[in-house]
Amino acid sequence: PDLYHSSTKPRDAGTGAIVIIQKWYRGYSSRLKARQLRALSIFQSIEYADEQCQLQLSTLFSFMLENYTDICQADSELVHRFLLSQQHLRERQNFEELIGVSQSYTGPQLNFPLTFIDIDYVLQHFMKNQILHARYVTEVLFEMKKMLMRKPNFNRIKSHGRDITICGDLHGNLTDLFLIFHKNGIPSHNNLYIFNGDFVDRGKNSMEVLMTLFVSFLTCPDYVHLNRGNHEDSMMNLRYGFTKEILHKYKIYGAQILKTLEEVYTWLPIGTIIDNEILVVHGGISESTDLNLLQRIDRHKMSSVLIPPVEIRDQATKSKENKTGESATTPERSKANASSSDHLSKHEWEQVVDILWSDPRTKNGCYPNTCRGGGCYFGPDITAKILSKHCLKLLIRSHECKPEGYDICHNGKVVTIFSASNYYKEDSNRGAYIRLYAGTVPQFYQFQTTSETCLKPLCERCVYSKKNSEHWVLKERIISQKTDLTHAFQLQDHGKSGKLSQGQWALCMESVLGLQLPWRTLRPHLVNTDNDGNVDYLSSFQDVHIKKPVQEVQSTVIETLYKYRSNLEFLFNIIDSDQSGLISIEEFCETWKIFSSHYGVPSDDAQIEELVKKMDFNKDGSIDFNEFLKAFYVVHKHDTLKPD
């Protein structure tokens, strides 16, 4: 046909190019969004799996308490350092007098009582990367404890026409807190704030975030309200970084600061109720949540979710009572019972755990939170039931990273707010905060702090280094389970071909790793496949291996230590009561025996003992545990970078 005489008007070439570019950009943006959501899913699954491991350690502590006497016969000092390490704090005046402020100190200097000028003063110095002197840190902590002891378990706020801002997890991200104050203003009579827990851990400026919030609270306690999160817990801080940060920044005073902070945590309120209509808690609720009970409990007895209340009844004493009919009390038993009396009852403890750890789900009902290992999943029916029971209209909670910084579910009755942007890595998520205006629906304000890399072109920002990518993080998790995965693969490989179908491979990955991930979608990033689409399952391990600190040690021992390295680090940090970074060889071996026997971890104790002795390079009978842990890390192919 004659194209020039067609009735269809030819499209302008420039317009056609624009349409093509727009189509490409929409497709590219869609693929980028899908990759970001997939990355967020990977990071979040691994984070929750780690939290599950951490919470499972509570059963170890219960085991040690219940078998207290038997374990004490082996090493009573070791058990004391695990369970009864609470030392009496020095009197405030005596402790503060020990800390002098040198003339060379140029950081913030605080005079009590604090004023609004002090908030600005602290912020200005923190912006210059100056830390607060240990003297002022301790003064702030002692003042916080004194003020918090007067607070009820639930803050009750009346808006009276004033604006209320609610912030979620900050996790040591000082830049996000600066941005919130810059956009939204500092706390004042007409600008109330609620910070909904998880102020610390993971971020490198947890102390500065905490001090900013505490100084703000001490300046205007009626306008700043702080809820406890699951990371306002000394045991969690041991694992997730805040303890290390304090010891690094405050050296000789760090241990005493940690002890004081531990008490402050216990006095933080566990929730806030706004205008008798809105409940604000960190985690969520369960079908048994009783706000009336929660308002009456002694919250300061909840030192850590990892130390649940148990009935201590040592077996040796029971045996003696059975034989003689008399009751015997040992010094060890008296100390153990004294420790137990400082805890909530089991029912009260579970109520607080649910408030701090639970997550909403779309499915009706209330069932165990299998991802985190603590708290529960609660459905829309549970939300409706609890809110109706207590004449409330809305639940605002935090605790979960959301791509957009917030999420609304359960027919609009549950709002999740998360205020740490770039939580897993740059561009992984936005942060957000809620602003409640009198008589209006909640308004959400999103933000995302940026670094110099965000000035690069879009295509460059999307290319992350392999070392920090979600796929390499996942590969590290895979290599830690190499033995179990290989066994699972071989059970499915009936023909011993070294290959499985994609479905078989995905089933093995999910069953062994326990991560609910789209394995078929992730497959191209993790393994090789042949032309028929079958998976070469051993290629799962081809790009990574665990460095062996001592070549003679069996590879299975290395894998076992790597697999449990985070739990071991946590336990040994408890043992290292003087925070010297050194523990004795005997303590290392005894702790490993308790740990491995309780969890049924297959290992060769002789191999472990030989390994530890070889790690004692200067033969002084102790090992630098931090250096020991650094020996067990995953080496990526072509990766010449040293571990952090």
From TrEMBL:
One of the GO BP terms on file: detection of stimulus involved in sensory perception
Needed cofactors: Mg(2+); Mn(2+)
EC number(s) from the headed UniProt entry: 3.1.3.16
Gene name, Swiss-Prot/TrEMBL: PPEF1
Biased composition (Basic and acidic residues): 315-324
Catalytic activity reported: O-phospho-L-seryl-[protein] + H2O = L-seryl-[protein] + phosphate; O-phospho-L-threonyl-[protein] + H2O = L-threonyl-[protein] + phosphate
Name assigned to this protein: Serine/threonine-protein phosphatase with EF-hands
Positions with biased composition (Polar residues): 325-342
Start and end residues of each EF-hand domain: 563-598, 603-638
CDD domains: EFh
Chain residue ranges for the region called Disordered: 315-345
PANTHER family tied to this protein: SERINE/THREONINE-PROTEIN PHOSPHATASE 5-RELATED (PTHR45668), SERINE_THREONINE-PROTEIN PHOSPHATASE WITH EF-HANDS 1 (PTHR45668:SF1)
Gene Ontology terms, MF aspect: calcium ion binding; iron ion binding; manganese ion binding; protein serine/threonine phosphatase activity
